[in-house]
Design goal:
Blueprint: H1 2-6, H2 16-19, H3 34-43, E1 47-53, H4 59-68, E2 74-78, H5 89-102, H6 110-115, H7 126-134, H8 146-161, H9 166-181, E3 186-191, H10 201-217, E4 221-227, H11 234-239, E5 245-248, H12 255-269, H13 276-279, H14 282-295, H15 304-320, H16 329-338
Parallel strand pairs: 1-4, 1-5, 2-3, 3-4
The chain binds adenosine-5'-triphosphate (ATP) and magnesium ion.
């Protein structure tokens, strides 16, 4: 128990890139194969895919696991919604260009950075683009080569220094995405931090109504996480029929077994040799299952983040109690009292 506590085995990180390593596939959780469904939707290589569920249901975990496991025909490009007028497609496109342009910088060695100064960009017409798209074939090799980076930088700066005409900016973003198509790779835009709009239904509404619509017209795939409450906004409802796919995270049919699988993955990941049943008393697991069921309304997924927060808090209590050989029912009860279930969405 002390080792699990020290290793922060049950910690719920806000970092998107860390989610994939602790993800347990839905099929292993006894649920429909959402990983396969999302992978298949992305393979269509077009339009917007929405992943919906309550707060803490596992939307980001699913998106992170699936997009990080895509084959080399795809390039995942994560775009943050923080600091951008979400309902303004041109502002969003401009911001996306900056993010994509700067994304690979961190992966570059100094000599590669210098090579960026070289001018290698190719002009592309719409007809060429259509041909490119039609002949889409998976290509092997490194994506962010200095040449490609130079392309990205050039296209971005051309668009960003010339005027603020919305149509031009969106066309500029498409040219940027074409740099990936030219390599035989489909760009996959990931808009995952939409929980940032929590208290602002207008931002969420306008994002779907305007920006998601514009992204859907681009020659790229866009994966968007949406809290269930967003799906009731007028803007979402007006655009949803244009989506390539809408995946709703379902309630896990056997939450106790699912919980054990998720905790076991965390224990293994922490490098601790133990079974969940060594760590938790059966009664404690029953309480955690009940907490999940209380958050899983209408056949939709419950709050897995809450379960992990409670499990971690109960573990801490057990570690503090020198007499406790396991995380007991009492500690889980106390942890539940200290960490009550939050709302399903941050919308007011
Ligand atoms: N399939 C899964 N396997 C293992 N852990 C999971 C799974 N789904 C979710 N989790 C864990 O539950 C927590 C919440 O998941 P996640 O961040 O994906 O929720 P979310 O639906 O994106 O929430 P939010 O609406 O706040 O963005 C994370 O710590 C994650 O590691
Ligand atoms: Mg999320």
């Amino acid at each position: 128990m002390a080792a699990l506590d020290r290793e922060l085995a049950f910690q719920t990180s806000a970092r998107y890139d860390l989610l994939a390593s602790t993800h347990v596939a839905h099929i292993e959780l006894g649920a429909p194969d959402l990983e396969e469904q999302l992978g298949r939707a992305i393979a269509k290589a077009e339009g917007v895919i929405a992943v919906t569920g309550r707060i803490g249901a596992g939307k980001s975990s699913l998106i992170s696991a699936v997009t990080s496991g895509l084959n080399e025909g795809f390039v995942p490009l994560r775009i943050s919604v923080v600091g951008v007028e979400a309902g303004d497609p041109a502002a969003f496109a401009r911001h996306a260009m900056l993010e994509i342009r700067d994304l690979p910088e961190t992966r570059l060695a100094e000599h590669e950075r210098r090579a960026l100064a070289r001018d290698t960009a190719l002009a592309r017409t719409t007809e060429e683009r259509t041909e490119l798209r039609a002949g889409f074939e998976i290509a092997a090799g490194e994506v962010f080569t200095p040449m490609v980076l130079a392309d990205l930088q050039k296209i971005a700066s051309e668009t960003l220094t010339h005027g603020a005409d919305p149509a031009e900016i969106l066309a500029g973003l498409q040219r940027l995405l074409d740099a990936f198509w030219r390599l035989g790779r489909c760009p996959v835009l990931i808009v995952d931090d939409t929980d940032h709009w929590g208290g602002e239904p207008d931002s969420a509404d306008a994002f779907f109504d305007q920006t998601a619509r514009a992204l859907g017209r681009l020659d790229a795939v866009t994966v968007v996480q949406a809290q269930t409450a967003y799906t009731e906004l007028g803007g979402y409802q007006r655009v949803r029929e244009t989506f390539t796919a809408e995946l709703h995270l379902p309630a896990l049919p056997d939450p106790r077994a699912a919980l054990v699988a998720i905790l076991q993955r965390r224990i293994d990941g922490a490098g601790v040799q133990a079974r969940v049943s060594d760590v938790f008393e059966p009664g404690g697991l029953d309480l955690l299952r009940d907490a999940y069921l209380a958050s899983a309304a209408d056949g939709r997924a419950g709050d897995l983040r809450h379960l992990l927060v409670v499990a971690r808090s109960a573990l801490e209590l057990a570690v503090e109690d020198e007499l406790a050989g396991q995380v007991g029912t009492g500690q889980v009860q106390e942890a539940l009292a200290r960490n009550p279930l939050g709302p399903g969405s941050a919308l007011p």
